[in-house]
Amino acid sequence: MQSVFYFLQLIRYQNLAIIILTLLFAKYFLINTHLGENIEGVEKWILLIFSTTLIAAGGYIINDFYDIAIDMINKPHKVLINKIFTQKTVLFVYTFSNVLALFLGLFISVQIALLQVFCVLSLWLYACYFKKIALIGNVLVAFLSALVVLIVNVLYQQHFLLVYIFGVFAFFISLIRELIKDMEDIEGDKIGACKTFPILFGVKRTKVLIYCLVIIFIIFLFAFPSLDIFGQNISQIGSYIISLLLLFLVCKLHFAVKKSDFHTLSSFCKLLMLVGMLGMVALKMW
Predict the structure, then answer these.
(1) I want to staple 97 with a disulfide (CB 3.0 to 4.6 A). Which of 19, 58, 206, 283 is the partner?
(2) Which residues contact 41 (CB under 8 A, 6 or more apart)?
(3) What does each C-alpha distance from 274 to 74, 109, 163 come to in angstroms?
(4) Which helix (H) or strand (E) holds 34?
(5) What is the predicted pLDDT for the residue at 94?
């Protein structure tokens, strides 16, 4: 049982749960519910959720594999490879999960399978190279986070506007969180020869970049009600709530100095993602 617990930590079971919930919420609250209600449609949804989760789990595993030395400094208490699991074991699990995911993707559609190949390669390139390059790795992870939502449009080969809107939401929250995590991990990243934005330009300039992203994000939030998809009232309420949370994030970020401060803000970004999912429910029920 202890090995199972450590394995769940290795694959970031909390983050995987958010991915699963995001896909489920997207299906039931962002698209027309009459789509995919037959047996074939349900099977494709199950396969999509399972394969996407496998790819994400593989991404966390390969990232930890290449970050053993860095994580021994940034978060030594969370390092599991070479302590609990051997490198050979984690590489086998990584390979198996990706192969199984791509195999399942072929049963869904060729487009989904090709998109999943892109995700697998992107996560590997991120772990090996891109995470060490300022902004490139951050933007890539943010884009992959948005794809968790956008893949719904690929599955149905339709353009659901709300799917795109929440895809943008996921992109901004993820990008902000990635930059905050870079500030949190700056010590280990320096030893790992990473060239992240905080290392190249400093923590203060990284904070300024996040402030700019928040401003752009808030502008997007208040452009959303003008689309008048579900009525301006509920859309505006949602925009005000998210904006207030973002302003709270900015205030806390301004005074953040310690590693623990940035870790708390990173967790707060996860809370914002959950608020976004609840927003899906609110828009559907209004």
Answers:
(1) 58
(2) 35
(3) 26, 29, 16
(4) none
(5) 96
CB 179 within 8 A of CB 209: yes
Q: Please tell me the predicted confidence (pLDDT) of residue 71.
A: 84
pLDDT digit string, tens, across residues 67-101: 888 888 888 888 888 888 999 999 999 999 999 99
Give me the mean pLDDT over the 254-275 stretch: 92
| Domain, as residue range, for 20 | 2-285
Residues linked to residue 133 through DSSP beta bridges, in sequence order: 195
The token duo for 252 is: 């806390």
Q: Are 98 and 19 in contact (CB under 8 A)?
A: no
SS3 at position 79: coil
Q: What tokens does 39 get?
A: 């047996």
- Alpha helical stretches, state H, the chain: 2-10, 13-29, 39-66, 68-74, 87-108, 110-128, 136-156, 161-184, 186-191, 197-223, 232-254, 259-285
Dump the DSSP string for 117-144. HHHHHHHHHHHHTGGGBTTHHHHHHHHH
- Any idea which of 2-16, 203-217, 270-284 has the lowest mean pLDDT? 270-284
Show the tokens assigned to 255.
């005074």
How far is 29 from 37, CA to CA, in rounded Å?
14
Total domain count for the chain? Answer: 1
The 8-class DSSP code of residue 82 comes to T
- Cβ-based neighbour number of residue 200 at 10 Å: 13
Nearest to 144 by CA among 162, 180, 118, 166: 118
Distance CA 204, CA 206 (A): 5
